[in-house]
Design brief:
Blueprint lengths: L1 E5 L6 H13 L5 E5 L14 H12 L5 E3 L12 H12 L7 E5 H5 L7 H7 L1 E5 L8 H7 L7 E4 L8 H9 L10 H10 L15
Parallel strand pairs: 1-2, 1-4, 2-3, 4-5, 5-6
Length: 208
């Protein structure tokens, strides 16, 4: 089983291509998309409401039997550490550390040493690393920073896609179209809620 975490704000074709590449290259049975609750390494609060991000992920993967959504990070209290998420999912789905693939970009691999208990992240899963433009994979550096990742990394090849959620949010604010950058269903959510603009429409909330 593969696990692809992220804020998905918004989810875009780069995320989906990563998941598809991991699914095919590693012969996985399933790839779980795990929207982050409150990532400890992202201090700036710039993300949309959690339910909206969940809605975009659901829309993006609807009808694709290779992919599924997990709300494990949304349903547990902060802080949301990746190692805890992997441990929970391994128990929930009954997969061992050699059958659980944590799909991440090369940028994340090179910053893994800054995460909470990176040694356990490597022990709990196989790191399926996808190269991202501008972030070369320096394996010896990664080994030096987190020795436990040695023999726990597998590379997943796919065409480079220079796209990020940060870029897409900026495009929307500038009045530019994100068509073809995100699935049509995700574009519909962005437009209907006017996400990432000063007129954003958030879900109705109950009494405080």
């Amino acid at each position: 089983m593969g696990v692809l975490g992220g804020t998905f704000d918004p989810i875009h074709i780069g995320h989906l291509l990563m998941a598809q590449a991991a699914y095919e290259v590693l012969s996985l049975d399933l790839v779980l998309f795990v929207p982050a609750g409150v990532p400890p390494h992202k201090r700036r609060v710039e993300r949309e409401d959690a339910e909206v991000r969940l809605a975009m992920v659901r829309a993006a993967i609807a009808g694709d039997q290779r992919f599924a959504l997990s709300t494990v990070d949304m349903e547990r209290p902060a802080p949301h550490y990746s190692v805890d998420m992997l441990t929970i999912l391994a128990g929930e789905y009954g997969v061992g550390c050699d059958s659980l693939y944590f799909v991440l970009g090369s940028d994340s691999l090179m910053q893994l040493h800054t995460w909470h208990r990176p040694d356990l992240v490597a022990r709990e899963s196989v790191l399926a690393v996808v190269h991202r433009p501008g972030y070369p994979v320096e394996l010896e550096v990664a080994y030096e920073r987190v020795p436990e990742v040695r023999e726990r990394i597998t590379m997943v090849e796919m065409p480079e896609v220079g796209i990020s959620s940060t870029l897409l949010r900026a495009m929307v604010r500038q009045g530019r179209s994100v068509r073809y950058w995100v699935p049509p269903a995700v574009e519909a959510v962005i437009q209907s809620r006017q996400l990432y603009s000063c007129m954003a429409v958030m879900p109705a909330r109950g009494p405080a």
